[in-house]
Write a structure and sequence with these properties.
The protein is an alpha+beta fold. It has 2 domains: 11-164, Rossmann fold (3-Layer(aba) Sandwich), CATH 3.40.50.10790; 174-275, Beta Barrel (Elongation Factor Tu (Ef-tu), domain 3), CATH 2.40.30. Helices cover 20% and strands 29% of the residues. The chain contains 6 helices and 15 strands. The chain has helices at 23-34, 52-60, 106-112, 135-149, 199-206, 257-261, and strands at residues 11-15, 40-44, 71-75, 86-91, 96-100, 114-119, 159-160, 174-175, 179-187, 193-198, 212-218, 224-227, 238-242, 247-252, 268-275. The chain has a 7-stranded mixed β-sheet with strand order 2-1-3-5-4-6-7, with helices on both faces. It has a 7-stranded mixed barrel with strand order 9-10-14-13-12-11-15. The termini are far apart. Residues 1-5 have low confidence and may be disordered.
Length: 278
């Protein structure tokens, strides 16, 4: 099948490979060999090594900003070479996802509305020699490239039921009479600590305390006011804010909150209501 160079959508890649080694570049080389007209966009190659949850969150926060029918190639695969399946997912929103069945694709694909899932078994749509340690190159990159070219997803392998794939579940915040207790689920490159408390949860909690103001506490730190912008805090001062994820995060103005608080994924934080104003 000839490559359709005028496809109005890209092929976007997320990995934990970094840039020290050749891994990300070789995957793009495989894509270029199979689909030379595909515009390739690197979303991120700095996902923390083997952090499936971080990769899943980045994919969830990215897919909706791309054109319909974009092919997302995601590889964070600590189980490479094991019985975990290689899969591709087509969604009702049009986005296609290719990667390991370890929960990495679940958050984004479920949000986009899963239409069909296949297990990548077709010998014609992978490299001839499949390594036990580099399925990104040998299975996932070819499958993504063929999808971009217009190969029907059903030709890549047998169908799977949505209930049969790994469903990644992020922790939920817990609301009590006096606080909403959450935890950090993601740390970005600036050291900002992104929690699992979203704005609707915070607003629901705050509506119970009309004469109080909301404050955030994280281990090893004093209470922090909720601000509207990073620049509303003094340099070097901790702050809490609803960031671009739509989630409550803790930051340091011109600093690194993860280092300052020695905190990371799993660290607890709380949203509390206090009397008066500081």
């Amino acid at each position: 099948m000839p490559t359709r160079a005028r496809n109005p959508f890209p092929l976007a890649i997320i990995t934990d490979f970094g840039y020290r080694d050749h891994y990300a570049g070789v995957m793009k080389g495989v894509v270029a060999s199979i689909a030379p007209g595909a515009p390739v966009i690197d979303i991120a190659h700095g996902i923390p090594a083997q952090s499936i949850a971080a990769g899943a969150i980045v994919l969830r926060e990215s897919w909706r900003y791309f054109p319909a029918r974009t092919v997302f190639l995601a590889v964070v695969d600590p189980g490479v070479g094991t019985a975990r399946a290689p899969i591709a997912i087509e969604t009702r929103a049009g986005a296609r996802f290719v990667g390991p069945d370890n929960g990495l694709l679940w958050l984004a694909a479920n949000q986009a509305g899963i239409k069909r899932i296949v297990k990548l078994t077709s010998p014609r749509h992978r490299l001839t020699d499949v390594s036990a340690t580099f399925h990104g190159r040998d299975i996932f990159a070819p499958a993504a490239a063929y999808l971009w070219r217009g190969v029907p997803i059903t030709t890549l392998g047998p169908a799977l039921r949505p209930t049969s794939i790994v469903q990644l579940v992020l922790p939920h915040p817990v609301e009590s009479a006096r606080e909403v207790r959450g935890e950090v689920i993601y740390v970005d490159g600036f050291g900002n600590l992104v929690s699992n408390i979203d704005r609707p949860v915070a607003e629901h909690f705050g509506s119970r305390f009309r004469h109080k103001y909301l404050s955030v506490r994280i281990r090893g730190g004093a209470s922090m006011r909720l601000l509207d912008a990073y620049g509303d805090a003094l340099k070097g001062v901790p702050l809490a804010i609803f960031g671009s994820f739509g989630l409550l995060e803790v930051a340091i103005r011109d600093g690194n909150a993860a280092m300052h608080f020695a905190a990371g994924p799993g660290s607890s934080l709380s949203l509390v209501a206090l009397e008066g104003r500081t």
